Amino acid sequence: MEYPRSRILKIYDILNKRYPDPRTLLHFRNPFELLISVILSAQTTDRQVNEVTPGLFEAYPDAASLSRAEQESVENLVRSTGFYRQKAKNIIATARQLEDVHGGAVPAGMDELTRLPGVGRKSANVVLGHIYNRPAVIVDTHFSRVVRRLGLTQAEQPEKIEKEIALLLAPEFHTRFSMVINYHGRDLCLARRPKCGECPLNTLCPWYSEKPAVVLRE
């Protein structure tokens, strides 16, 4: 098996062809909407977030309006995303901080973004990669699972995974690599019953070679 640095470009090339348009599945029209959507996406699906954000952004289209919102009103709009009380609290507090500190704009730096309530490194990297075209390794559950199975890292902590993968690729590939890996995790490299027999990466995947029983169950 080749070293991770030599395999990762082959993996990227294969997945880039399979997923030619790997955009975030969250619906948004501007940086504010993406930031709020990412905060709401914690512990739920992008699809569920997309169901509530049209009503949320109709009521509160920008940081100024959301910063003045009553929490109960916001809770009712985001209830179906789960943990709705904390999420409502976070997005209102984030909107206030955007207004008070950033003039209503979404900041373009990791430090500034992660100071916002409910925003961790993953959420910040989504904004940096998709809005500001900054190099961003976006480590969610799909990404973490796939890169570990592919033997690109053995790290378990998201921040360590982010740093190790960033060292293997030129910065200009970080965001797109994150997205094609994410798509692959949703499409074939599933948490349960991965479709290894259909996977174009199985000859590059140490997890596949070590887990023949998984393939036989498909």
Automatic annotation (TrEMBL):
EC number: 4.2.99.18
UniProt remark on cofactor binding: Binds 1 [4Fe-4S] cluster.
Listed InterPro entries: DNA_glycosylase, Endonuclease-III-like_CS2, Endonuclease3_FeS-loop_motif, Endouclease-III_FeS-bd_BS, HhH-GPD_domain, HhH_base_excis_C, HhH_motif, Nth
Any one GO molecular function term: metal ion binding
Gene3D superfamilies documented for this protein: Helix-hairpin-Helix base-excision DNA repair enzymes (C-terminal) (1.10.1670.10), Hypothetical protein, domain 2 (1.10.340.30)
One of the GO biological process terms: base-excision repair, AP site formation
The protein's required cofactors: [4Fe-4S] cluster
CDD domains per the UniProt record, alphabetical: ENDO3c
Pfam families for this protein: EndIII_4Fe-2S, HHH, HhH-GPD
Entries under NCBIfam families matching the protein: nth
Protein name (record): Endonuclease III
Species, as recorded: Marispirochaeta aestuarii
